[in-house]
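User: Assemble these into one structure.

Assistant: Restating your components, then the assembled model:
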Amino acid sequence: MNDPSLLPDGARPQVEAQVRGKSPGLLKAAALFATGLAATAVLMGPGDVKIGDAIGQMQARADGAGLTMAKQDSAATAALPQVSDVVSSATGPVAPARPALGDVDLARVQVLSRPVPSDTKAAAEIGRAIPKPQDQEIQLPSAEQTQVLAYGKFAPIVARVFSNVTKQKETHWTLHPWDVARLADQAASELYKEKRIRVDPRLIAGAYYTESGGVVQVGFDRKGVDMINKGHSIEKVVQSGSKASFGLFQIDQQHAGASDVDPLKGAKRAGEFLAEGQDNLRRFPQLGMLAVSATYNASSKLRAKIFTGAAMDERELEALEGVRRHAASMSYGAAIYDLAHRTYQQHLTQAQRMGLPIAVAADQVKRVDPLKDERVGAVYSLTGRQAIVPAERAPMPATAVAGTPMAAAPPIPKSAQVHVPAAETLAQALRTGAAAKPPTVLTAVAAPAQSLVAPAARPRPVASHTQRPATTKPPAIRSGQPRATHDQSQGEFVGGRMNGVDFGGAGVARAAGAAVAQRVENVMPPAQRVRSAFQATTSEWRNTSSDLLGRVAAFHQQRTREMTTQAQGQHEAP
Amino acid sequence: MSDTLPTEFAIVSIGQGEKAQFAIGALPRVGRLPFKQVQAHATHLTVTGQDGVQEELGSADEPLAAGVLEQLHSSEGLVFAELDEETGAPLATDVMKG
């Protein structure tokens, strides 16, 4: 889905790592080694690269990395000793710059420099390795926020993130990274179909992750955040007229999409918006993500200087730091996209190969989801959860879910603020394109991936869904009862399967998808109505943290029903 | 000396087809490099570390790719690299030649 024009094909060496053994440490090291090798081969230029020479270079760089920090600009170095000049570092080391970085950066760099694993478990492990927010306090989301989260097919996560805008730590419920990757892909392809604007989904997702501190943010403006930090409830914050923000739109608060609630619509708007940045990225490939950030975050004068590489005065250098930080975050976001996109696509491919949708529509046909176990395992790994209590057996009300999806969110927070060089390094890698995205194929020979078992080898229990009784409810029973089956949905939601419509991510023809998006827009009930419906139905379990899942599920079901109803209406119409 | 350690390792290749070049990577083990001895079998390799510990790279059941053994016998040799678990950087290397 990536726009190949962003990545020079000629420079890509084919690098593969095949692991004999089960050690996760080796798996990781081999993958990183392969990535570094690919990057080194690119740096060594076209022609036949001897693998021995490339490894020698890598070793020399690893040995010397601690000593060779570039000292380029005295002003910049004084402020941030590790910042290296943009242009010169483009030709500098691309491999993980471990020894050169401070302790705090390390975790982030490691995440950034990891290649995309090909199996979900490993991806989840990586997700887990991302430092977690310390504060786990959870705020209840508003109905609008719930609407955004309802887009997700995977369990949402809560993240404590540092906001660039408010300079405060904020608590956010967010979409799962896999959902964000899907969102970006979908938005990019729809945007192309509709307007012939081709935007790399990495940029869209990068913006999403970046502008929202790791994942799609559902937060509030400064006033709202102040209120939340003073302990006011979300409802009060909403009533106060505080403006809710929905991640992506923070690219530009004045942007027309700033009041959109439909995340797909918002992503498309952002895609349009990012097209200009992407053009600049093409014009100034040596700047990498900095070219994108400068398009939006710099004055026209500074932008021109960044693009031409002209000398800057002290104030401009200071402003440049901000742009760099943003670029670094964007690169980080793009890296997370790579990871999430790959793993999500892999699930999808397997599900399609087996003829089963990744999400089964609500109360339609009972179908076995052979990937469920693995996905649940991955979600466990991501969230640190140990078990899911089957919804039917769990005590009512909302304690049904054993543990809430917790903060495994990849946060941008502090490190994004302060430690530029880490992500700059990655930015280098990303900007060299081939270096950042070597076609690394990782094959765990001795570690059979559960997900790769051939469909035939797997018993396909036809009608035995372990967690659900055989009571099939007809779809669209009523449209005004959001909570009808929320307990069931909770269990499935946590397992990565949300009752409801598949918005095209599972390969459902997006031709229908476009119609769906249109319909979503049309049938969206008034916010006030949604809110009051939720207030009525959630009052008894409002205080529990698993509240959210019920609300999301309930909302999703309600919307599904309304859409079904409307779809039927449309069918009947001439 | 008689004990042979089953070693977990990775074969990293660059390029495709006939042009493919290989290297072997493994997590570090104290006392391994530089190798004291490298024995090439038809399907795999047995390496002996400085400390005398023998390690099998591949086996008859899980043979190494032909290209790997070919490279061992080539003028360039086969690079064995001990990899940093966190960064994947080659910490120490040794070139094996058949």
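Chain A touches chain B at residues 13-23, 25-38, 41, 48-52, 54-56, 58-59, 61-62, 95-96, 98, 110, 113, 445-446 (CB under 8 Å).
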